[in-house]
């Protein structure tokens, strides 16, 4: 067995172990958790489902802004076809499958693989930084279960450091350095400050909407809560837990990491069973949203030959592609 194959097997085994551990923890407390889930009525669940559909859209728009800034203007429809189908790759162990899929589909839109890969990496990086910025107020909840007096300095230190990473000159230097280390040609142009700021703003909006769906679910459990504390634990806490989970590249979509961190921050504000109910329903809704958008993207991509079978490519290797380099507006 090669080293790469062994590493892949270890990733899958670790992912299965994490999922099993989470499942056992939920099963042991299922009586209380199921009660909290039943307290969430249909209208609350529908509102949470609507809110959870907004982050993929905001993230797509941010990805599209970065892609346009590097030289490829895509209409929203083909951009969604490429982006949403590729996003399913995050559910596979590893950190490159989304990038590979988006690069291959992008080639049919005449997007250079190098450009697709850079935009994918920058999107993940900026999204993680935006999540950490939104999540900074919840750091005390995670470190000291609410003792902000001893952890406030962490927030004061981390915010300027994270903002520094958003500085376009530093970001472009990092991109150029990575390409040089990988012995790849440099990009035709650099990312502009306007694009970095615009994309980051869209990613912040995505995190806020993600946290709002958790807030709605937590309120729906019917437990007693303090509104500001619940908003902090769900909105900032969800962003912090999810962005930290993004660094666990060996686990698919950070499964288990996000749930564990969010329960730690949410349980003191509500209850352990209510927090568990929120993370269970949240994971279900986010997966369903990803599948829904991927299905819509796949239908568009398939009908416009962004996804083709081997037989189709052999019969017509010069299939027409959709128009690129058009207006950036959707």
TrEMBL record:
It is found in: Cell membrane. Keywords: Cell membrane, Membrane, Transmembrane, Transmembrane helix. It is a multi-pass membrane protein. It comes from the Bacteria. The chain crosses the membrane at residues 45-66, 117-139, 151-175, 196-218, 230-253, 260-278, 284-301. Residues 310-330 are annotated as: Disordered. This is Lysylphosphatidylglycerol synthase transmembrane domain-containing protein.
């Amino acid at each position: 067995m090669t080293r790469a194959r062994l590493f892949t097997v270890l990733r899958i085994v670790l992912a299965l172990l994490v999922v099993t551990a989470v499942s056992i923890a939920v099963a042991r407390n299922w009586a209380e958790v199921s009660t909290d889930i039943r307290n969430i009525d249909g209208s609350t669940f529908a509102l949470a489902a609507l809110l959870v559909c907004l982050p993929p859209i905001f993230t797509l728009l941010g990805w599209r802004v970065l892609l346009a800034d590097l030289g490829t203007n895509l209409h929203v429809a083909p951009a969604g076809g490429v982006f949403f189908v590729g996003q399913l790759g995050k559910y596979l162990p590893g950190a490159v499958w989304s990038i590979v899929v988006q690069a291959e589909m992008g080639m049919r839109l005449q997007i250079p693989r190098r450009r697709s890969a850079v935009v994918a990496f920058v999107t993940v990086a900026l999204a993680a930084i935006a999540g950490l910025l939104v999540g900074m107020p919840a750091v005390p909840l995670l470190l000291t279960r609410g003792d902000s007096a001893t952890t406030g300095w962490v927030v004061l230190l981390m915010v300027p450091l994270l903002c520094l990473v958003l500085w376009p000159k530093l970001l472009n230097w990092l991109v150029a350095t990575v390409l040089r280390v990988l012995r790849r040609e440099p990009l035709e142009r650099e990312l502009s400050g306007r694009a970095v700021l615009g994309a980051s703003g869209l990613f912040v909006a995505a995190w806020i909407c993600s946290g709002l769906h958790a807030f709605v679910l937590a309120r729906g459990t019917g437990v007693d809560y303090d509104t500001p504390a619940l908003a902090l634990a769900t909105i900032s806490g969800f962003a912090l837990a999810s962005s930290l989970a993004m660094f666990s590249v060996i686990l698919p979509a950070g499964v288990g990491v996000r749930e564990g961190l969010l329960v730690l921050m949410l349980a003191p504000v509500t209850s352990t069973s209510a927090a568990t109910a929120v993370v269970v329903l949240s994971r279900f809704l986010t997966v369903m949203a990803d599948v829904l958008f991927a299905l819509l993207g796949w239908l568009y991509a398939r009908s416009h030959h962004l996804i083709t079978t081997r037989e189709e490519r052999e019969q017509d290797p010069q299939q027409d592609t959709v128009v690129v380099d058009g207006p950036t507006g959707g």
